[in-house]
Amino acid sequence: MRWATRRHCHVDRAACAWLIRRFVDPDAEFVFVDDPDEVPADATPFDIRGAELSHHGGECSFEAFLRRFDLDDPVLWDVARIVHEADLADERHDAPEGPGLDVLLRGLSMTRSDDELLALAEPLFDGLYEYRKRAILLGREPS
Amino acid sequence: MSIDRTTWVLLAYRLPRAPSTPRSTVWRKLRRLGAAQLLDGLVALPLDARNREQLEWLADEAVEAGGEAAIWVGELGSAQERALVARMSEAVATEYRKLIAEAEAARDHPCGRRRRTLGRLRREVRRIRARDYFPPPERQLALVAVEELAALVEEPVA
């Protein structure tokens, strides 16, 4: 399947792309557009104004994916809390990891293309997912 | 004072009178971003990718709440811009001054309370800096005040 999002990806779009590849569509192909009008007819738009898989009710696009695809894995919702704060910093959640994740992804977006950014973000989010999974199982920060 | 001209991203929005929750949510987020109110329902931020995106999400939020919203990118007249920059700079200066007073007051607090105040003030400085687009001299003074408090916290107990 083809998925379309805005060019110059940042944390929310990178997290969504990781989520799509891991939990929704392993063969996902991504296209990047400058304007919502440029989304190809056969592509599903995300993190674009007006799309279903975008910001709604103060939630970020990653949270919209979890709702739309009924992904009720508590670890994913825990990662969502961090992505939300990295993206929006509105202190809806207590996620001290947010600002750090924001800096890492923002830095990558300055030095890499969108395709490279998404490829690099995958192992990063794999690691974040694993860390939060262990933290939830242990009930404290894992080492 | 001469300054480089700024390009602005503007959000024009209207929300229904009731319910009042979306109104206060949007207002709280605009305040966090440091947006300056130009008129009732018209706010401005210096244009960059992040500010533009954040205002676009707020525009969508206003529309979802039954209101109307539009995003504009533009330039202001030079006198109007000077006044706006001065106003935004003064707004963060006020926040920095309050923080400096708190940091100074905390010097006389007991050790544990001083440490907690330090943590809170460091977070607060970060929040203010994120919306400090036209830094006033108070910024440097605030950073120094917090670091002086930190030096006291780290002092070994005699």
Briefly, what is this?
The complex is a heterodimer of chains A (143) and B (158). Chain A is mostly helical.
Structure, explained:
The complex is a heterodimer of chains A (143) and B (158). With 143 residues, chain A is mainly α. Chain A contains 5 helices and 3 strands. Chain A has a 3-stranded parallel β-sheet with strand order 2-1-3, with no helix packed on it. The longest helix of chain A has 25 residues, at 114-138. Chain A is globular. The mean pLDDT of chain A is 96. The N and C termini of chain B lie far apart (49 Å). The mean pLDDT of chain B is 93. The interface between A and B is medium-sized, with 12 and 13 residues.
What are the main properties of this structure?
heterodimer; A: 143 residues; mainly alpha; 5 helices; B: four-stranded antiparallel β-sheet; globular
Rg over CA atoms of chain A: 15 Å
Q: Tell me the number of strands of chain A.
A: 3
Mean pLDDT rating of chain B: 93
User: Biggest interface and its residues per chain?
Assistant: A-B, 12 and 13 residues
> What oligomeric assembly is this protein in?
heterodimer
Number of strands of chain B: 4
Question: How is this fold's topology laid out?
Answer:
The complex is a heterodimer of chains A (about 140) and B (about 160).
Chain A: E1 2-6, H1 11-24, E2 29-33, E3 43-45, H2 61-68, H3 74-88, H4 97-111, H5 114-138
Helix pairs in contact in A: 1-5, 3-4, 3-5
Chain B: E1 8-14, H1 21-33, E2 36-39, E3 42-46, H2 49-64, E4 68-74, H3 78-106, H4 111-130, H5 138-154
